[in-house]
Specification:
alpha+beta; about 25% helix; 6-stranded mixed beta sheet; 3 helices; 6 strands
C-alpha cells in the first residue's frame, strides 16, 4: 500500500521528471517516504518520488513539500478513483515493482525547467497584489 498524491497537469509530469521538486500546499503533511504521483483527471499513477520534509514558508503562505528521487513509470498504473479522494489516495501498488522510464535528455529537461519557470512567473505576476496583502485567492 502506498500513499499517492493528486497533482494537476503539467505539474505532475514535472515532478516525476525531476523538474519540480517542491510541491506548494496549503496544508501540512506528516507523510514521509516514497509516494505515488497521480496526474489529476487521468485515473493513473504516472510515477513516484520521495517526500522528505514539509516546511511552512511564511513569506509565501504555503507549506513546501520537499521531494527527491522522482521516477516516471513507463506504463502508468490505472486505478479506480473513489468518491471523496481529493489530495491523497491509498493504493495497493508497489512502486519498486514498476518499470522506470529513463531520465529526460538534458535538452528536454532544460526546456521543461524553462516552461516551469515561465508558469511560476506568470502565476506570481497574476497574484502580486494578493501576495502583497498576505493572502492568495
Amino acid at each position: 500500500m502506498v500513499h499517492c498524491l493528486f497533482v494537476k497537469a503539467p505539474f505532475a509530469g514535472w515532478i516525476v521528471d525531476g523538474v519540480k521538486l517542491i510541491e506548494y500546499r496549503t496544508r501540512e503533511t506528516y507523510i514521509r517516504g516514497r509516494i505515488g504521483i497521480i496526474e489529476s483527471g487521468t485515473g493513473t499513477v504516472i510515477g513516484d518520488a520521495e517526500l522528505i520534509d514539509c516546511n511552512w514558508n511564511p513569506q509565501q503562505g504555503f507549506y513546501l513539500w520537499l521531494l527527491r528521487n522522482p521516477r516516471r513509470y513507463i506504463t502508468p498504473v490505472p486505478f479506480e478513483h473513489k468518491q471523496g479522494w481529493r489530495t491523497w489516495a491509498i493504493l495497493d501498488i508497489d512502486p519498486e515493482q514498476q518499470e522506470i522510464a529513463p531520465r529526460l535528455p538534458d535538452r528536454v529537461f532544460h526546456a521543461q525547467c524553462g516552461a516551469y519557470r515561465r508558469k511560476i512567473d506568470s502565476w506570481l505576476l497574476e497574484h502580486t497584489q494578493h501576495l502583497a496583502n498576505g493572502r492568495v485567492e
